[in-house]
Amino acid sequence: MQTSLARRQRHRRALGRRPQSRSGPTIGRIIAVVLVVILLTGGLVTATGALLVAAAYNQYAAGLPDPVAALTNIPFEQQTVIYDRTGKIELARLGDLKRELVTYDQLPGEIIDATTAIEDKDFWSNAGFDPIGIVSAGLDTLSGRPRGASTITQQLVRARLLPPEAFAGTTYERKAREIIQSIRLTQAYPGEEGKQQIITAYLNQNFYGNQSYGVKAAAKGYFGKSLDQLTLAQDAILAGIPQSPTSYDLLRNAEEVCLDANVAEGQECTNFKMVVPQDSEIVQRRNKVLDLMETRSPLTGNKHTVAEYEAAKTEPVELVPQVSAAWKAPQFVWQVRRELGQMLCPDSPTDCPKVDTGGFKVVTTLDYEMQKTAEKWVYVAARAPNAKDPSAILASRKIPKSARSWILGLRGHNINNAAAAVMDYRTGEVLAYVGSASYTSKGNRKFQPQFDVLSDGWRQPGSAIKPVNYSIGIDDKTLTASTMIMDVTTNFGGGFTPTQADKLERGPVRIREALEFSLNIPAIKATIMSGLQHVYDRSKDFGLSYPNGVAPVLSEGIGTLEVHPIDLLGAYSTIADGGVKMPQRMIGTILNPDGSTLWPTAAETPTGTQVISPAAAYVITDILAGNTVMAVNPFWGKWAIYDGKTRRPAAYKTGTTSDNRDVAAYGYLAPPTDKTAPALAVGVWMGNSDNSPNDGKLSLDTSAPLWSAILTEVSKGEKIAQFKAPPDIVSAKVDAFTGLKPGPFTKKTITELFVPGTVPTQKETLRQAVTVDAASGLLWQDGCVGPKETRGFFNMTEVEANFPAWQKANVAWGARAARGSGVGGGLKGTRTSYFYNGAFAPFGRTWGAPFAPRALCPIPAPPIICDPFAPTPDPALPAPSCVPLPSDPGGGPVFHPPKPTRKPH
Known about the structure:
Layout lengths: L3 H12 L11 H14 L6 H15 L5 H6 L7 E4 L6 E5 L14 H11 L11 H12 L9 H9 L10 H18 L2 H15 L9 H9 L8 H9 L9 H4 L1 E4 L13 E5 L4 H13 L12 H8 L3 E3 L10 H15 L9 H4 L3 E4 L3 H15 L7 H7 L4 H8 L8 E8 L4 E6 L18 H4 L9 H11 L7 E4 L16 E2 L1 E4 H6 L3 H11 L1 H8 L25 H12 L3 E2 L5 E5 L5 E3 L9 E2 L3 H12 L15 E3 L2 E3 L1 E7 L5 E8 L10 E8 L15 H12 L15 E6 L13 E6 L12 E7 L14 E7 L9 H14 L6 E2 L4 E3 L73
Parallel strand pairs: 1-6, 10-26
Antiparallel strand pairs: 1-2, 3-4, 4-5, 6-13, 7-8, 7-20, 9-11, 12-15, 13-14, 16-17, 18-19, 19-20, 21-22, 23-24, 25-26
């Protein structure tokens, strides 16, 4: 290691290559810089303007602390403690054990160069802020590319050197105080030595993820090394973390690579190393730092060659084994920490040291008993099937024998992870939260236990998105629960020709049955009818967000757009709560170190937003509630919620992506009459951390029983409630097949629920009146045997006529359906089927009407009269059929006069 004097001399030689101001910027020069900013932003600088700028400087500088004292007396250790909702069970202590301070002489030039290269390239020469950068960032923000422009000095000031009152007012006012204090700090610590003190304080106070404060603690926590032992690549990756320490946390991005040769895939490993993948965002950011260091390394200069920088880009990021923090509900604690950052430092939530060191007592919304239940079921569903002795694990966790069969049925099907959450949908409070199975377990590529799938993962919801999309159409009055849509394989354009998983085409179905039984093609058509962009935009009102750059697509109706699972649970909670979206909350109360309440204030009481009407929400709830009634849906209904032998009214929906990468289930119980009791909603996800597909398991075999198990246990003993319709809901009888007002050919009706103003007034047009011969069933023509009858037959001419491609597919389906159920063909070789399938046909084995005949009925030949005077027929020909001649009143035959000779028949 170099001596302190040698390092100082080398640093000074490097510093000599860049412009330096030994005395630091003066107030006059600073005001001049501000005036330049005004000029660059289109302002007019006059003598009066200069005075106004000076006045503004003095106004915002008022009340700011002495920067010398502030930097000298930075407080570092005041632990924040997280509790459950009772305030008695300690979940975690933040910011403990991992803070180590260094002096400037202990900082290698590489870690300083890496930090300034990525965070503040002009650190050594600027006045504490970058006016050109501020203007540039402002222009980028106006053009839709928002970014920050804070220097290292500004970041330090914002994190440590501003009093709480400096954050009052607008963002611009806070920014002004931040810039002024940065200028004052740079003046108070002038020249090279001043910059050294500033960069040292900055590197000591930074949060680097993994509970590590200060670069020294981060080097030890991630790599088990002192700073002078780090490689060039390790210096660069540490420098890249502070921009977003939660997202760039190396531990949370790492995968455990098993070194045991004989461990089967998916089983736990005893000998492993933790490696951050080369394609992860933080490794890509490391490589960017290395690129910048080639030309922005004033301290190390030409010490490293281009080849060394390039080699550093390929260096594996291997972490030392970690000592797990003794946290309860760890992924929940991480989310609480994130929410604290948003509340305490709204302008810089990922750079908010006071979250960990503010000494707060945080009482959360977590119900620890529900948390233990959720953790138990998630673990046995995801990890037990991959263990050497799954039965022993199930017995040790006291899993009922009735549940063991579905869990053991997952063995060998490549499902390695799961996640679940429980919410109170009337308050938005998160009651239980499991972001991955078994946080402290050893993992692998398919099972990354520290990664939070619920909030950080982007996952396709599959059919679980359908209730949201349908609710938008029903609320808009574009759709109703009785709207008929043809379930027929259709080419929607762009090569998108989806099918149902069972390859059946059920023809005319109403939206109620289409949603209950999760039919794909009606869901796609309904979303198109409502408007792809409209549904995409309205779904955000439910709390859904999508990855950057994602736009509406034809397949969004079947859940191909990725979302955060916790957000989708919030969307279901919105439907459950009568269309009211409550803000999702994990924090109940924040107390200052002196015990006073910091949050909430009276003005911060959470309030909900009406997203859809109560009537629209209830229609969806009523449909989904059918999925827990065996008589309505015997397939989904087997996972109904019971308390003993009594079924709890519940509503739920499942989702399976087309390639089985994700399986999910979301649903909720009826709200308790006791307003203080939690109204429970549960969401679960199962799959693999590396997004690989499972081996042939659908949601009804996986996520549905997991959802049922969690909700059954967390609601045990609670009073059973019923779903209640809002006062404006309307019910009406409709045709069971067309969903319209019953007509002359209606054979079966059902009672349906409607949003006011949407009850059908049109009689059905699916069937048309056709006159047929009753004897033959063929089209009538004069002379048929008869009797003549008028019957109702399918009429495809008006079905989905606004969509030519749909109608073309419907006509082709009709030609096959006319031959009966089970006839294959069409665009994907799918088969016709009565709803729902051969095992369950609640409306009979019919599509609601027969298909009209095409042929005319035959006209029979006139009868031949036996005539005793007729010539004898040719014996070689068949004997003609005769009818008896009429008799006279006396009983004898009546003879006709002789007729001319004619040819034999």
